[in-house]
Design brief:
With about 230 residues, the protein is α/β, with parallel strands linked by helices. Helices cover about 30% and strands about 15% of the residues. Strands 3-2-4-1-5-6 form a six-stranded mixed β-sheet, with helices on both faces. Helix 1 runs parallel beside helix 2 and helix 4 crosses helix 5. The longest helix has 23 residues. It is globular.
Length: about 230
């Protein structure tokens, strides 16, 4: 069983479920803006192919006897576009879940972050990287994602019984820190060490005691070779 960090409570769902946290596909961002929660950043052509790959992956699971009972996504365009092919394939509506949105970031909208940080105006935001001081605290991200996961899990179990499965499209940092918490690891980390690639799936097995196990998968691994590493994803 996955142990819970003492700094964030482990929500108690109503029953057993599986929640698949999917990171969105590649974003069209030729100017390499740290876009965060800014509107107007949709998927690139490759990102749309990734979204189709996610639809293929879960449609195949359905055919193999693992039905999907609820679809949800962050309100941001890139998340909504990522889940759209799956929703169309399964003929299911998408619940917009605000609590799985991208993290807040003081540097949102900037380009060339490394050079920008040489400017003293930004230094006060770099005081505490453990929190982090430049954006939404890691623990706060975990808490809201877990609240969203609990609400979706409880809804799916109430409507479909134990064993219900939920697909949620979210963003790299909220997914990653939630996984770190679930695996009882420290939330502070090197961003280069995140195991949460574009359209990867971080699966939470949920039981009466909360998050019980975590699994990671990359169904679009072949497409990742052509992806551009973008900030603010």
């Amino acid at each position: 069983m996955v142990m819970a960090s003492s700094s964030v409570s482990n929500p108690q769902p109503a029953g057993y479920s599986t929640v698949h946290l999917v990171r969105h596909g590649e974003v069209h961002n030729p100017n390499r803006v740290l876009y965060g929660r800014l509107p107007g950043f949709g998927l690139s052509d490759l990102g749309h192919r990734m979204a189709e790959g996610i639809a293929d992956h879960f449609a195949d699971r359905v055919e193999r006897g693992h039905p999907i009972h609820l679809l949800a996504a962050s309100p941001l365009q890139r998340a909504q576009e990522t889940i759209a092919p799956l929703a169309q394939r399964l003929k299911m509506p998408v619940v917009t879940e605000d609590r799985v949105i991208e993290a807040e970031n003081r540097f949102e909208g900037l380009t060339g972050i490394r050079n920008q940080l040489k400017n003293p105006r930004w230094w006060p935001f770099l005081i505490n990287p453990l929190r982090p001081s430049w954006g939404e605290p890691y623990a706060q991200q975990v808490a809201r994602v877990l609240q969203g996961v609990k609400a979706l899990s409880d809804r799916a179990v109430a409507d479909h019984g134990d064993g219900a499965e939920v697909v949620v499209v979210s963003h790299q940092l909220p997914i990653w820190v939630t996984r770190l918490w679930a695996e009882n690891r420290r939330l502070y980390h090197d961003p280069r060490d995140r195991e949460c690639s574009l359209t990867s799936i971080t699966t939470l097995q949920i039981g009466p005691s909360g998050v019980e196990s975590v699994r990671y998968d990359e169904p679009n691994v072949e497409l990742l070779r052509d992806a551009v590493a973008l900030p603010g994803a």
